[in-house]
Amino acid sequence: MLSNLILGVVILLSSIFFYLQAIDLPERSALFPHFILWGMAIVGVLLIFQALLEVRKKVSQEGLVSRREARAQLNDILIFQVLVPGGLLLMAYGLLLSVGFYPASAFLVFTIYSYHAYRIDAANLNKSMWFRSIGFAIAVTLFMYLIFTLLLGLPAPSGALF
Amino acid sequence: MDIFSILLNLFTPSVFLVVFAGVLVGIVVGAIPGLNGAIGISLLLPLTFTMEPQIGLLLLGGIYMGGMYGGSITAILINVPGDVVAAPVAMEGYPLTKQGRAKEALYYSIFSSMFGGFIGVLILILFTPPLAKLALQFGPAEMFFVSLSGLIIVGALSGSFLKAAFAVLLGLFISTVGVDMITGSERFTFDSISLRSGISVVPVVLGLFCFAEMFLNIGKKPSEQVQYRDQKISRMTVVKDILSQRFLVWKSGLIGTLVGLLPGVGTTLAVFMSYGDAKRTSRRDVPFEQGNPDGIIAAESANNATVGSSMVPLLALGVPGSPTSAIIAGALVIHGIVLGPSLFVNRPDVAFTFLYGMLLTVVAMTIIGAVGIKYFSYILKIKMEYIVPTVLVFALFGAYSLRNSLFDVFIAIVLGIVGAIFKKIHVPVAPIIIGVVLGPLIETNLARAMRIAGARNMPLWEYLLATPLSKGLVALVVIMLLVVIRMRHKEKVAAKEVKNA
């Protein structure tokens, strides 16, 4: 329920923010965004109300425990399955801008492969895994280079290295 | 030109080879996230310059047909749609894969694509001139109502209505970012040059479906992953089941055909409309979004039916109905062929060979798809530790390749993070895509309608309801809305009964 409350507040605040951004636009340009943002604001308010009503409902001790467990699980997922891989992808994007697509791809494959192995079991991070992930990163990058650049002639983002 | 000469032109080894090669290329590019039939056609376009025009055209038609089907393979197997239009197939196909029924889902996909493809091509052959005239009847008012009807399917999706409404509004909002095509003013660009050209639908799909899904697969132990369980099912069982749903197939095929006719509307609307309609009318006990085959049948029939119908305005009027048919038009122009009504008089060999040859592309797609299913399913045998990084780098490339824009890559990554969070807090992501696709259509047609109404000195509503066609469309929208409300009410009552029990 907390997630619904946060979602409602975020929707409401962002719709107000963007509504203010659209105020200076010509009437015709602002018409459609204004409709949408009004709709979003209403949905945000309704979500907040819904969440508050849920909070007021009496919940048993068991319900509270399961709610707490679900929240802890959600936090775990958000940090380790969303923010960390998202951060790795953003790092790969930074590399892509500076050194080019293929080195960035090799980096991304290597890190995601290793991170996946680590998440399954930290003990997986041994010598053979490092070799496997390096080999796999090189193989995927070479395969992509072969298909996209050599065979299809598609342009890939270039950088300092490639 | 008599049918015998057409068949003589068609049944040659070179035509068969070209059609099969085209369909195979289409399936492969369609299955790779971010790439689609249009990209495949662009890549092989130069090859057609040395071919006879009709053969070159069939190569491109084959890629178009194959590309429409290819996107569903990865959608079903790993929940990563190769293309936007495969998103509804992912919603029903992936749950079937999780139940160990991947092969069955793939059979539903290929055979529904076959039926849809035949419907679209037969309509292309039989009704090209009258349908082209019908497409011309659609003015801004009619297009506005057609686009609006696409939004109604959001109400048919399961889960929280408020969250689905938010998702579709978010999609509509994303579509407004960039330079307004009507007034030329910048909206929500924050002085960023990259945002001026707006946010394309491809990075949105890649982010919300592909990146988000892969994020959530990271760290999954082999026991938590979808296991490869090849439940035995014969092709005929699936074909018989699809035939038992022939009304759904025809209806979806006709929706695909009619929406595909309208220039600029695109396949996505047709697919989501058919999917929403199937959800409203399905009689199976299986809930939607939990592996109901009717969702796959409807989406795939509509999807492939648009291939034929989007060619109707191109061949009969010279107006391309989709980006892909625009590229095909370019190929014809390079061959010195003038499109439009004169095509059937001046170059009947090209026109009729292509029309009937499209039936061959459907046959080729069915053969390759039905035989290849055994091999496609092997994707599930690959460990997740190999799939996740590979799909991520392919998707990065896919996000870049459409407009050669690094900004699109950034958008896809950011939306991937947002999409993964949304999935975890039960905000559906499919309506966001519906909003992004339909936003420009709704806004542009509404603005045009307002301008015309202003010029004629009449109220907007009067202009919107001026023709019998637009009145009929309004009635259709209202009926769809009522059916959705009734469906939601029934679901609520059923849920309450279960809770009480």
Report the strand count of chain A. 0
Mean pLDDT of chain B: 83
How many distinct domains of chain A?
A: 2
Shape descriptor of chain A reads flat
Please state the CA-atom Rg of chain A, rounded to the nearest Å: 24 Å
**DSSP strand (E) fraction of chain A?**
under 5%
- Low-confidence residue ranges of chain B: none
Low-pLDDT parts of chain A are none
Helix % of chain B is over 70%
Secondary structure class of chain A reads mainly alpha
Q: Assembly type of the shown chains?
A: heterodimer
Order of helix and strand elements from N to C terminus of chain B: HHHHHHHHEEHHHHHHHHHHHHHHH
Number of helices of chain B: 23
What's the Cα radius of gyration of chain B?
22 Å
Please summarize the sheet with the most strands of chain B: 2 strands, antiparallel
Work out the largest interface and the residue count of each chain: A-B, 63 and 56 residues
- Give the overall average pLDDT of chain A: 88
Strand count, sense and barrel status of the largest sheet of chain A are: none
